[in-house]
Design brief:
Elements lengths: L14 H32 L15 H5 L5 H13 L18 H52 L60
InterPro entries: NADH_DH_b-subcmplx_su6 (IPR019174)
GO cellular component, one term: mitochondrion
Protein name: DgyrCDS12652
Length: 214
């Protein structure tokens, strides 16, 4: 029916004919939408191929292999497929061109590759591969940790310099009714951004001057 009971735009059509055309138009739009979704789903699952993907494994389920319908030809085909899954001694083959790296990563990886290539006969392929991936990460983490410790311990943010890391903590949580509730700390004007200036242990009077009174 027409929206809101309004009259058809074409006076030559009856209400029944107008509703019939509206229903046909809606069905056509819905069909086109469903067809488009079906094509997109097929494109996604088929991965852009012209035919649907399928498994080449013969008798993939154990129920099929234990049934009486499995003939001698099927058993031979299944056996051949299982034997084909075994890799040759030369596999897997590493092709460097399939995993390209930028010059910076190649330069950083070259010393580690040479090191673990030289000790691979002693460690074996398994442990050499594992250590090749773990040792560089551990070494990088250790260098970063040492750099952080050095900056915190020997290069703090004080009034004597303008660099260094500023380390601070959160204020203690105060709950209603506890001791110190609504009692803020009193600060003077020169307490803000002090950077340890007032806690210095060396003052001007601690130094002896070369000039002596006569």
């Amino acid at each position: 029916m027409a929206d809101g009971g309004s009259k058809p735009t074409n006076e030559a059509l009856s209400w029944h004919e107008y509703d019939q055309k509206a229903i046909e138009k809606y069905n056509k739009t819905l069909t086109e939408k469903l067809t488009r979704e079906k094509i997109l789903i097929r494109q996604y699952y088929w991965r852009g191929n012209r035919v649907a993907p399928f498994s080449i494994e013969p008798m993939p389920y154990e129920r099929q292999r234990l049934s009486e319908l499995m003939s001698s030809e099927d058993r031979a085909l299944r056996k051949q497929w299982v034997l084909d899954q075994r890799l040759s001694p030369n596999e897997p083959v590493h092709v460097a061109e399939l995993n390209p790296r930028n010059p910076i990563r190649r330069a950083l990886a070259t010393p580690w590759n040479m090191l673990f290539k030289s000790i691979k006969p002693f460690l074996g392929d398994k442990w050499a591969t594992k250590l090749r991936g773990a040792v560089p990460k551990v070494a990088l983490g250790w260098v970063v940790a040492c750099a952080m410790y050095y900056n915190i311990a020997y290069n703090p943010n004080q009034w004597t310099n303008i660099d260094g890391w500023h380390v601070y903590g959160n204020k203690p949580t105060q709950i209603y009714g506890e001791e110190g509730w609504l009692q803020g700390s009193e600060k003077k004007d020169n307490d803000f951004h002090d950077c340890g200036f007032q806690k210095r242990k060396v003052f001007l009077g601690d130094y002896e001057t070369s000039s002596k009174p006569y």
